[in-house]
Amino acid sequence: MTEFWKRFSKHRGAVAGLVILFLIVLLAVLAPFLFPKSPWAMVQRPFLPPFENATYFLGTDTMGRDLASGLAHGAYVSLLVGLVSTVVSLLIGIPIGALAGYFGGIVDDVLMRFTELFQSVPSFALAVVLVAIFQPSITSIVVAIAIVSWPPVARLLRGEVMSLKSRDFVDAAVLSGQRSFTIIWRQILPNTLSPIIVLASMMVAAAILVESALSFMGLGDANVMSWGYIIGAGRTVIRQAWWVSFFPGVAILLTVLALNLVGEGLNDALNPRLSRKGRQA
């Protein structure tokens, strides 16, 4: 663990990203305590400019709702959707990729053709269609993002498993009489954790962007406040009240940037040899 942190801390951008991500998570956790009122509540006159009122320091939106409260409560929704959809994507993609890579042959052909079927449709367009079919809600958004996000996981795992199944420790497990699924679970998958963790950090960022885009288009959950919804609500008055779209846009930018920086740091820490080769090249 000490060596991992030493390698991770050498990437200054990753440390900065980790700090930003920690502050955003802290804001999401403390949102109900910092802003006990509902983010939907009308608390002031509409279009109150930022930094003119100590209580509502980020101003208000078109309906007189506290923008700071909306950002804090929206952080929870964005992070929740990003994390849950990524976990679901991993639960779909990891088994498919592991089975295709280990067994090969007809199993590989069938599973990879199935994967390519999902990749043949633009992911965002498919997400829009799925959310529209199942009615906009947090659950439908999570399911839609997971369905369009798992193919890269499957392809990554397939390649990793194909390179690992010819190693000596796998041959030893086969000779000792272990079953194929036991070998995959106990011998191969633990050795694929590094690329999975790195990919997962990037997938959370991508999921947050997709959720924000869906909410911006009016396909978000109408019962929860989200950053995309706030931007969408302020797009028609951007000249009159720029802050309504600006602050949630900055929040999305910082969150996605932080996750990508952390992903790069994890890649350097978990795969130091690959990182050195990349720099030398």
Order of helices and strands, N to C? HHHHHHHHHHHH
* Approximate shape: elongated
Q: Tell me the CATH topology.
A: MetI-like fold
Number of domains: 1
How many strand elements?
Answer: 0
CATH architecture: Orthogonal Bundle
SS-based class: mainly alpha
Strand content: under 5%
What is the first-to-last residue Cα distance?
28 Å
In the predicted model, the low-confidence regions spanning at least 5 consecutive residues are 277-281
Quick one: biggest sheet? none
Helix content: over 70%
Q: Please tell me how large the radius of gyration is.
A: 22 Å
Kindly report the name of the CATH homologous superfamily.
MetI-like
Number of helices: 12
Overall average residue pLDDT:
89
Q: What's the CATH C level?
A: Mainly Alpha
Topology:
Blueprint: H1 2-9, H2 12-34, H3 67-103, H4 105-119, H5 123-134, H6 138-164, H7 168-175, H8 180-188, H9 193-216, H10 227-234, H11 243-270, H12 272-280
Helix pairs in contact: 1-11, 2-3, 2-11, 3-4, 3-6, 3-9, 4-6, 5-6, 6-9, 7-8, 9-10, 9-11, 10-11, 11-12
Q: Could you explain the architecture of this structure?
A:
Keywords: Cell membrane, Membrane, Peptide transport, Protein transport, Transmembrane, Transmembrane helix, Transport. Pfam families: BPD_transp_1, OppC_N. The chain crosses the membrane at residues 12-35, 75-103, 124-150, 196-220, 241-262. This is Peptide/nickel transport system permease protein. Belongs to the binding-protein-dependent transport system permease family. This protein is mainly α and 281 residues long. The chain has one domain (2-32, 66-280): MetI-like fold, CATH 1.10.3720.10. The protein is 74% helix and 0% strand. The chain has twelve helices and no strands. It has helices at 2-9, 12-34, 67-103, 105-119, 123-134, 138-164, 168-175, 180-188, 193-216, 227-234, 243-270, 272-280. Residues 277-281 have low confidence and may be disordered. Helix 1 (2-9) crosses helix 11, helix 7 (168-175) packs antiparallel against helix 8 (180-188) and helix 9 (193-216) packs antiparallel against helix 11.
